Amino acid sequence: MFPRTLRALVRGRGRSAFWLLPVGLFAVWGTWFLRARITVYEPSVRARLEVHRDVYSVDAPVEGRLVKTQVELHRQVRAGEVLVELAREQEQRQLAEAEAVLQGVGPQLVAARAELEAELGAMVAQQGQGAAGVEEAKARLIEAEALARRAREEGASTEKLWTQGLVSEAEWGRVRSELERFGAAEQATRAALTRVKLEGTMQSSERRIRVASLQREIAGLEASESVARATVERLREELERRVVRAPADGVIGETGSVRVGAQVRAGDRLATVVAGGDVRIVAQLSPSTALGRVRAGQRARMRLEGFSWTEFGMLEATVVAVASEARDGLVRVELSVDDMPEGIPLEHGLPGSVDIAVEQATPMRLVLRSLGRGLEAPPRAGTGGPAARDEVELSRGGS
């Protein structure tokens, strides 16, 4: 009796465990359906790689004869590398003459400035010396005037005494002689003061004339130096113009007549340098999927036609620019290449397809969106439904 009861209980528990399995799976699926984050990608209609290239024309800047050339078709060149040299012997001789003139003017200018400085110092010293001489002459004149005045007073007294007969004729004669001598000394001292003043004025005038002459000489030398320096700079630029350099890093894509000894005219085409630029992805998307959804900064990936993504991988990219309106029924989107897989050649025009990550949404939201699109615009015969335009990458927890 007991074994039968035990077997019945075991059979009942097995049936309960069997029903727990689908319930648990449904709960897990429901959680995923309501809360999982799925990255939504918008595919491009078409896309390709574009290598931006700048083409530089290398022209002859002046007329001349070719004496050296390193222009070879398809040769790699660096910016600033010498490509062509024109004859420049005449310009080099003119430059040497101008540099000699410039070197000769420099010492003359230094000497003239030193002489002017010395002359200005001598002028100051001469002015001080002249003032001292005038003061000395004035002091002597004051002394002579005092002696002459005293002599005149003594002469007047002696003359009265001589008139009264109190002094002899000889004494009166001596006093008159002294009076005349002091008067002459006074006149001589006054004349000496006038002469000292005139000499000081003349010396000052001569110094000023000499200073003015030196200043004119210095101005002329400075003008000559400026002209010589400008001539040297012009000739150096002329020499540099006769050396044609590569305008940028790149490849010589076209050459003209660049044989040594050939005569070229200003403006003649010597070569063309093709400079490589950045690699970008240019994708064309449908306006209904691009406008308002694709924005700069969004991540993207590109599969190249002819290169299996399982073997070579995909290009990682970032949206950098989106056109504001459609052209020819498509919206242009430019993307920068962040990661280029090895083994894929960097060639202009490689076609492929681009998927741009526009948002993350739950499965329930995507289902409701697809149902809404189906109700608003039923698919026409021969075309896929709206859900066919969305490529999604299922990833739990967001990617």
| The CATH architecture of the largest domain | Orthogonal Bundle
Radius of gyration: 55 Å
Shape: elongated
Largest sheet: number of strands, sense, barrel closure: 6 strands, antiparallel, barrel
Strand order of the largest sheet: 2-9-12-11-10-13
The strand count comes to 14
What's the total helix number? 6
Mean pLDDT rating? 78
**CATH fold-level label of the largest domain:** Helix Hairpins
Q: SSE order, as H and E?
A: HEEEEEHHEEEEHEHEEEHE
Question: Are there runs of 5+ residues with pLDDT below 50, and where?
Answer: 380-399
Note the beta-strand portion: 15-25%
| CATH class call of the largest domain | Mainly Alpha
* Count of folded domains: 3
Q: What is the end-to-end distance? A: 61 Å
Q: Which structural class is indicated by helix and strand composition? A: alpha+beta
Report on the architecture of this protein.
With 399 residues, the chain is α+β, with helices and mostly antiparallel strands. The chain has 3 domains: 36-52 and 278-393, Elongation Factor Tu (Ef-tu), domain 3 (Beta Barrel); 54-87 and 242-273, OB fold (Dihydrolipoamide Acetyltransferase, E2P) (Beta Barrel); 90-241, Helix Hairpins (Orthogonal Bundle). Helices cover 51% and strands 25% of the residues. The protein has 6 helices and 14 strands. It has a 6-stranded antiparallel β-barrel. A 4-stranded antiparallel β-sheet has the order 6-5-3-8. Helix 2 packs antiparallel against helix 3 (169-241). The model is unreliable at 380-399 (pLDDT under 50).
